[in-house]
Amino acid sequence: MVPRRLRDGLTMLWRAPDAVQVGTDPRCAVAVEGLSPAELRWLLTFDAHPGEGPHPGAASAAVPAARRAELLGLLDRAGVLADEVSPRGEQAALGVDAAVLCRLGLPGREVVARRSRRTVCVAGLDAVGAHLAVTLALAGVGTLLLSDDQGVTGDDLGVYGVDDLGAPREARLRSAVRRVRPAVR
Predict the structure, then answer these.
(1) Selection from 82, 69, 70, 72 nearest residue 6 by Cα
(2) Which residue in 56, 70, 132, 148 has a CA-CA distance of 20 to 30 Å to 21?
(3) Cβ-based neighbours of 86, under 8 Å, separated by 6 or more
């Protein structure tokens, strides 16, 4: 059996003496009610053992295998489980975008990975273009083509600093983008 875990960005919460809730956003949360104390303890181990699914210890032994399979099937049909096992800390590395996308039932990791393979051209690197380029870099766009042959003016200050006045916008913005996200090309 493939190890199970909660989708990125979801948390299992104790809701009542016989119920848990997975997620907090009403668009993608699911409640599981009518649980015995042993079933409740077993399901809550998702949070205690991220990346491993319910822990195979004493809590697991107290719940019959058929009931465990039934509960996992319910969560799987609700779309809150994932098969692959994430290395510890991977969710934090995915960033806020991936976690939010996962909460909405979208494949957050895949969306962020596709974004990292995208190329966007920003032509005109005035204050608006500079902010746009930095935002795209922070959002995970993999390659930015920056185009502007003008020098930095006083109206461009924001991403650019006072020391950048008169310098070529393209070169200065390239440095600014790499400071906020070194991996961008």
Answers:
(1) 82
(2) 56
(3) 5, 8, 50, 51
What is the amino acid identity at position 133?
A
Classified as helix, coil or strand, 116 is: helix
User: Which tokens go with 73?
Assistant: 């099937």
Note the pLDDT tens digit of each residue in 101-141. Answer: 766 667 777 888 888 899 999 999 999 999 999 989 988 89
Q: How far apart are CA 47 and CA 67, in angstroms?
A: 19
- The whole-angstrom separation of Cα 110 and Cα 70 is 28
Identity of residue 141: V
Per residue in 143-163, pLDDT (tens digit) is 999 999 999 999 999 899 899
How many whole angstroms from its chain centre is CA 146? Answer: 27
What lies within 8 Å, CB to CB, of 111 at 6+ separation is 97, 98, 101
**Torsion angles phi and psi, residue 151, rounded to 5:** -90, 160
